[in-house]
Write a structure and sequence with these properties.
single chain, alpha+beta, 3 helices
C-alpha cells in the first residue's frame, strides 16, 4: 500500500470527514476527470510510487474508480459559486458484498485548477458542525479521532464546502495521470 493511500486512510480516520446519505444523483454531476489511470500521490510530494486508480466514465455520467480495495461510484458535482473547476466529490462504495454501503456517501473537494487534480478531505470544524446540526444532520464524535459531520441536506453541504474551500490552499492528495 502506498504512502498516499495510507495518508488518505489516516486523514479519514483522524481528521474526521463529511458523510451522509447519498445527496446527489448523476443528473447533478458534470465531467471532471478524464478516463484513465491516476497515481494517488501525497500533495506536493515528488514521490513517483503510489497506488494506481483506474477511473472510467459510466453510462450515467458517474465515475467508476477501482483500486486496491473495492470499487467506488463517484459523482463530481460542480460548485458554481466556487468557480467552474471545483467540485464536490460524492463517493459511494459499490461492493456487492455490502450493498447497504451504497446508500451512504463520503464527501470531499476536488480542485481542477492545479497542475494535477487535487483532493481535499474536509474537517468537521465547529462552524460546519453547527450548520449540520441546525439542518437536522448529525455529528459523530469519537474520542480517538476527530468528529465527522453527517449531512442530510445537499444545499447545506454545498454552502459549507464553498465556505471551507475559500480557505483551502493545501490539498491532501493529488491524482497524477499515468503517462504524464
Amino acid at each position: 500500500m502506498s504512502r498516499a493511500l495510507l495518508l488518505l486512510i489516516l486523514f479519514l480516520t483522524l481528521t474526521g470527514c463529511w458523510t451522509g446519505p447519498v445527496l446527489f444523483t448523476a443528473a447533478d454531476a458534470a465531467k471532471s476527470l478524464k478516463d484513465g489511470a491516476y497515481r494517488l500521490v501525497e500533495a506536493g510530494s515528488s514521490e513517483t510510487g503510489g497506488d494506481i486508480l483506474p477511473i472510467s466514465t459510466q453510462h450515467d455520467g458517474s465515475l467508476l474508480v477501482t483500486g486496491p480495495e473495492h470499487p467506488w461510484r463517484v459523482l463530481a458535482v460542480p460548485l458554481a459559486q466556487a468557480g467552474r473547476d471545483r467540485f464536490i466529490l460524492q463517493l459511494q462504495q459499490t461492493d456487492p458484498k455490502t450493498p447497504e454501503r451504497a446508500m451512504k456517501a463520503t464527501y470531499m473537494l476536488l480542485d481542477m485548477r492545479r497542475q494535477h487534480p487535487a483532493i481535499t478531505i474536509l474537517a468537521c470544524d465547529a462552524e460546519t458542525a453547527a450548520a449540520v446540526e441546525a439542518s437536522d444532520g448529525f455529528i459523530a464524535r469519537d474520542p480517538q479521532s476527530a468528529s465527522s459531520c453527517g449531512f442530510t441536506d445537499g444545499a447545506v453541504l454545498k454552502q459549507r464546502i464553498v465556505a471551507a474551500g475559500q480557505d483551502l490552499s493545501n490539498p491532501d492528495i493529488e491524482l497524477v495521470r499515468v503517462g504524464e
